[in-house]
Amino acid sequence: MKLRINHLLSVGIIFAYPLLLEYPKINTTQAITKDYSVDKEIRSLFSKMIYIERDSFTMGQVSSPEFKMTASDSTLFSPGIMKKTAVDTFYISATEVTNGDWKEFYQEKVLELGQASAKKQFFPDTSLWVKEFPYSYNAPMAEHYFSHPRFNGFPVVGITWDQARAFCRWKSEQLQRLLEKKGIKSTANFRLPSELEWESAAKNRESESKRAKRHVYVWPVDKSVLQINRLCNIGQIRNINNVLLKDYADDGCLYTCQVASYPPNYQGIYDLAGNVSEWTSDPGYTYAYDATNPSIRKLTSLQEVEGQIQHLRRSIDPTDPLASLYIKWLEHDKNILRTNDTKICKGGSWADGIIYTQVGNRQGIKKGDASTKIGFRLVLSNVDPVLSKYFPKKNWTP
Fold it and tell me: Phi/psi of residue 224, each to 5°?
């Protein structure tokens, strides 16, 4: 009897042994594959992010116009106050958000909200190609710019400020879902850059010994028009005598162009000058210059600017030319802030004059006004050290 039981046990072990080996082997392989897949997705989210170290610099630096202003300069705020400031470390995307990026976002919104609702809330306004530029030859842009695969690598346009923010939230939610699968708790999130962060990413960080000129443009020194054609995609350039020095297509792009078509700045960031202007998180503002109050104040509403104008008219010498010029500037800025919820855009576009590419200049656009000239890029903040292994060791290149 004892021999029979032992025999049965032996047979049972012989038949069960392959199952004991195979079952955990399958689960381990699946777990490793799944874990690797999550790691890959996290790295994909960070693949274009460029690290910007903490820095102190003079913000708001511009030069007097070297070229004739354009009709679109009505949205350009008056020169600001240059001020020494500091910015904490952050990551910024190497390129503007593309049509391809937006399509991925839009398709998820279709699944979440349904076709009709998603289209109403998140489909780019492609009709602006004709509304802003009412010429028959722009009709193909309205029809194909977002839908045709050829334009997947071009910056998404026709996007309001709120829509851009919705994209940032979606990317943050993607990241948090992936981190939860890894058991990682993090407050890292994608968002629009502040004006301070944008300027920090765009400025030229040359050594003090070589900094003969201020960082007025993205490129390190003044360039000729022919050189500018190889550096960025902007609109017409005319000299102060209204002589045309550069037409729209002279830089190789009649409209927008594929992101990273021009050289990056020294930090590895593309299209900070031209292609499309970029939404920031900051509200539109002008400055209060007041001899009786030496502190610098930002004026962010129509009421504040009107109050400052009235105060100046009561307190300054009307024959003072500088004071009169300042009041004219405030009147100009008041017209920009006349619409509520004005936001700062930076960098200039394919249709703007070169003055917009000055790093310190800022454009005031109502946050609900989409345009073929405006897109955006991402910033990533609150990055925990545990996430460092997911960032690329080299800057992204096209």
Answer: -75, 170
Question: What does the pLDDT read at residue 255?
Answer: 97
* 82 Cβ contact list (under 8 Å, min separation 6): 58, 59, 60, 61, 360
Is the pLDDT at 221 greater than 80, yes or no? no
Max Cα-Cα span within the chain = 122
- The C-alpha angle 141, 353, 263, rounded to 5 degrees, equals 75
- 240, amino acid identity: I
Q: Output DSSP code: residue 259.
A: T
**What is residue 196's DSSP assignment?**
H
Kindly state the tokens that stand for 162: 């709120």
Long-range (24+ apart) CB contacts under 8 A made by 141-144 are 141/255, 141/372
292: helix, coil or strand? Answer: coil
CA distance 100 to 150: 10
Residues 127, 133: Cα–Cα separation, whole Å: 10
What is the DSSP secondary structure assignment for residue 381, as one 8-state letter? E
CA atoms within 13 A on the CB side of 67: 22
Dist CA 221 CA 216 (whole Å): 9
Q: Considering the entire predicted model, what is its pTM? A: 0.88
* Closest residue by Cα to residue 57 from 291, 359, 292, 327: 359
Closest CA to 45 of 87, 89, 91, 90: 91
Q: What is the pLDDT of residue 242?
A: 84
pLDDT at 212 over 70: no
Q: What is the mean pLDDT of the chain?
A: 86
DSSP string, 189-253: EEEPPPHHHHHHHHS----GGG--S---SSSSS---HHHHTTT-B---EE-TT--EEE-GGGGS-
Rounded Cα–Cα distance for residues 360 and 377 (Å) = 18
pLDDT tens-place string over residues 81-109: 788 888 999 999 999 999 999 999 999 99
Res 52 pLDDT > 80 = yes
Above 90 in pLDDT, residue 217? no
8 A C-beta contact, residue 160 and residue 370: yes
Domain ranges within the chain, ordered by starting residue: 47-281+345-390, 285-336
| CATH number corresponding to 47-281+345-390 | 3.90.1580.10
What's the 3-state SS for 56-101? Answer: EEEECCCCCCCCCCCHHHHHECCCCCCEEEEECCEEEECCCCEHHH
**Phi and psi, residue 130, nearest 5°:** -95, -35
